[in-house]
TrEMBL record:
<keyword id="KW-1133">Transmembrane helix</keyword>
<dbReference type="Pfam" id="PF05454">
    <property type="entry name" value="DAG1"/>
</dbReference>
<dbReference type="GO" id="GO:0043236">
    <property type="term" value="F:laminin binding"/>
</dbReference>
<dbReference type="InterPro" id="IPR008465">
    <property type="entry name" value="DAG1_C"/>
</dbReference>
<dbReference type="GO" id="GO:0042383">
    <property type="term" value="C:sarcolemma"/>
</dbReference>
<dbReference type="InterPro" id="IPR030398">
    <property type="entry name" value="SEA_DG_dom"/>
</dbReference>
<protein>
    <submittedName>
        <fullName>DGN-1</fullName>
    </submittedName>
</protein>
<dbReference type="GO" id="GO:0016011">
    <property type="term" value="C:dystroglycan complex"/>
</dbReference>
<keyword id="KW-0812">Transmembrane</keyword>
<dbReference type="GO" id="GO:0002009">
    <property type="term" value="P:morphogenesis of an epithelium"/>
</dbReference>
<dbReference type="GO" id="GO:0007411">
    <property type="term" value="P:axon guidance"/>
</dbReference>
<feature type="domain" description="Peptidase S72">
    <location>
        <begin position="61"/>
        <end position="173"/>
    </location>
</feature>
<keyword id="KW-0472">Membrane</keyword>
<feature type="transmembrane region" description="Helical">
    <location>
        <begin position="197"/>
        <end position="220"/>
    </location>
</feature>
<dbReference type="GO" id="GO:0021675">
    <property type="term" value="P:nerve development"/>
</dbReference>
Length: 249
């Protein structure tokens, strides 16, 4: 029976382990190309090895994110111990009743003095928001009425991952803070619009009346001005003014 092991080359991250000689399994936390050497040793101690390369691509985008706050293990243990991540993934699959490959660990860190692990569900589409699927997954972890983590979920995750809190965060096209709505015009708004239109018509009519009055007034002033200027012009030429009485004499 051969014993398999993986040796990292070029300071690559060791995230694969051989569990019970069932093959190499692991969860990478970094993207890029990594070089390793696979070693196989038999009972006699004879060794055979072969190099291989793994290309880790970025995970698919998501429109949701679940954050688990746990007492243990520590963030350092989760980040450096591949077996801890494998056990966590199995616990999630068991608790949420989905295959192991359905989930992606997005981040490992700390929050509120607890170990924080963020993950997403690969089976939920990201190009459109499947609210029913997101709500269904959240309902297995969170009590909607009291916004508390369900006791059943905590027990199923086990004592080695004592979950204190589970939080569902929606983003992208599932972001609940973005609300786009249109409303039909109401009767009140239509009446207000009619009143405004009537007021505008009245103002225009008053302006028209004032303009006509100004035109008439200017015309009268101009006419009177012409009469006065004609009389003055006649006298200024020095011609005698003949009155009817003088003509008869």
């Amino acid at each position: 029976k051969m014993k398999l092991s993986v040796l990292a080359l070029d300071n690559a991250e060791v995230w694969m382990i051989n569990e019970s000689n069932k093959g190499l399994i692991g969860i990478p936390m970094r993207t890029g190309e990594f070089n390793y050497r696979l070693e196989a040793r038999d009972k006699a101690g004879q060794l055979a090895s072969a190099p291989f390369q793994v290309n880790v691509k970025p995970a698919l985008p998501t429109n949701h994110r679940v954050e688990l706050e746990m007492d243990m293990p520590t963030p350092q243990q989760m980040a450096t111990n591949p077996s801890k991540r494998n056990l966590l993934m199995r616990a999630l699959a068991r608790s949420l009743k989905s295959p192991v490959h359905s989930f992606t660990i997005q981040e490992i860190g700390s929050k509120n003095n607890k170990t924080m692990v963020a993950f997403s569900n690969n089976t939920i589409p990201y190009k459109v928001c499947d609210e029913e699927a997101v709500d269904a997954m959240a309902s297995k972890m969170i009590m909607k009425q009291k916004m508390r983590t369900k006791t059943e979920f905590v027990k199923t995750m086990g004592n080695q991952f004592y979950v204190r809190r589970a939080t569902m965060i929606r983003h992208g096209n599932c972001d609940e803070t973005v609300e786009i709505s249109t409303t039909a015009p109401t009767i009140q708004s239509m009446q207000e619009a009619d009143s405004q239109l009537m007021l505008i018509c009245i103002l225009l009519f008053l302006l028209l009346v004032i303009a006509v009055a100004i035109i008439i007034y200017c015309a009268c002033i101009k006419k009177n001005g012409k009469k006065k200027s004609t009389s003055t012009e006649y006298v200024s030429k020095g011609l005698p003014v003949v009155f009817p009485d003088e003509v008869e004499e």
